[in-house]
Amino acid sequence: MTLWNSLPGKAVILFVYAIIANFALASASGLVNSITGVSANALPYSHNFALILMVPSWFFVTTMLGLVGGMLLIIFYLFFLLLLKPFGVARFWHPKHYRFATSTTLARLAWTLGVALQLGVLAGQVGLLSEFSSESANPLISIENVTESELENGDAQLTKEQAEDISELEKDLTTLLTNAKQKSVDYKKSQRRALAYFIYEFEADSLSRCAHPEGTRVIELNDYEILQIEKTDEVEEGFVYTVEPCRSAAIGISVSP
Fold this sequence. Notes:
It is a single chain. The protein is mainly alpha-helical. It is built from five helices and three strands. Strand 2 and strand 3 form a beta hairpin. Helix 1 packs across helix 2, helix 2 packs antiparallel against helix 3 and helix 4 (139-152) packs antiparallel against helix 5. Strands 1-2-3 form a three-stranded antiparallel sheet, with helices on one face.
């Protein structure tokens, strides 16, 4: 709030959000390309719709991470005060009406870990933990392997109670990561289906100067190529995209009825 009440602070905050918007714009372009197989420049309305789908989650999560990062700065603040203590500086710098500075600072630090954990779960729910959707790099497997190797190590003599505690902790951590992974995958699937439906219903044309099979829709990429979209149940998004030559009488190619 202090930053926002000053003109330089507004400039810094808006600059940060402009950076976030640029990353979201690039991600939206990649999403359109991964679905259609062509550049997002040929689908401006779908590109904007993909950006609308991505911007809220990017802005919300990055804002929360910024707030947590601000709390983590307290650690460096305390370390800085410790360095100044030999020079006679042994008090907190805070407004006069601010009471219990030390205890509230320690409470903030204690809650930072919990907030960071909740933000990690939230990032998985909104789809920012997309790396968990890769089956080739499943972190759950590495966690299980490390735990088993530790249990089988002869140097670490664990009691039965300690082994049970580790097993419960491993189970809770595995459940947490599995839920975050599944929610991330489900969010990405819903996002892709919504964008594919938008491309077919709103971006693509049912009538075109370029000939195309009945029941399909097209997007003209240039004077000689079209993106042909066909509904199908064989793929998850429900549509098949192929780049075809434009068969039109305007460029001297006869079109069969």
